[in-house]
Amino acid sequence: MRALIVGLAVCASIAWADAPQPDGKALYHEKCSMCHDKTGMGTGLLARRSQTPELLQRTDLNTTFVVQVVRAGIGNMPAIPRGEVSDRELQAIAEYLAEPEKRR
User: pLDDT (tens digit, 9 = 90+) per residue, 77-92?
Assistant: First the structure.
């Protein structure tokens, strides 16, 4: 049984490695912008704590921070479960937000 589980895990990781990288920009607009666009509730709440509340205007984000905030939640932002945003999708979104040159 253990060998079967390990085998399935290896197959899943190989399939993941071969799958095309998700589009972080498209995923951000699909999954995040409803709260984090210019008029979103998340932007308004971030304005209380940040000089740059719009996520797309920030230059201080890194992928690790974005992933941690999304999975754990912070302030009024709830934790976002893997059922809503997969790890691959979240990684693509985090990379998009962490690299301002990708947002131009």
Answer: 999 999 999 999 999 9
